[in-house]
Amino acid sequence: MSFSATIRRAGRFGLYFALPPRCPACGAITADVDLFCDGCWGEVEFLGGGCTTCGLPLEATDAETCGACLAEPPPLARIRSAVAYGDTARSLVLRLKYGRKTALARTMAPMRRPLGELTPGALLVPVPLHRRRLWGRGFNQAALIAAELARKSGGQADPLLLRRSRHTPRLKGMSVSERRRAVQGALAVRDEGAVRGRDIILVDDVYTNGSTAAACARMLKRNGAASVELLTWARVVRPTTIR
Length: 243
Hints:
By secondary structure, the chain is α/β, with parallel strands linked by helices. The protein has helices at 3-18, 38-43, 67-71, 87-97, 104-108, 112-116, 131-137, 141-153, 176-183, 192-195, 211-222; strands at residues 79-84, 123-126, 162-164, 187-189, 199-207, 227-235.
């Protein structure tokens, strides 16, 4: 080991001694940064397999595609999420968005398996916030996650490719048709030349019913995107967990 590497290791040990890394969900001391404690790790439901299109877990069937995707193929070529939206996953989302714990984007970004199922080399594009919400929050959590994904994977992210051209109301509590009407015409592409012929992976924190992501996909494909997929930290598998 080189002298500089020894110094870095000693400095890291000293930092961990003074400020030990803690579980991003409950705050318990852990062995390294961005690691869940044993208790919280056991409560996280990691997603794998499922519908080849939307990624929804399939139970008691040999089918590879769910009935909903067969009946009405979505505008998103594939949807993948790292974990199911439960109490632990939810706590990270809320602390990132409303508690301004922006370092949690680094915890939520190691999504190697779901990212590996999507098109290699695709451009990472966060689902945008309207400037009014961006000013209030101070950051776009999807853009932070996309930047961390790009850094960890060696990929490319463009946080400004998509923008919200008008403010939309909160979609919580709306029906599917109401959500679609709310986001219709609310999105725009900054540079059509940067979209044309590109494979694009939209990035967001949580996937619920996909109205906003679907609207983003339609806009990108209208501007020439070759394909549009979606990657999120968590997805709602059981609607009763939405809070």
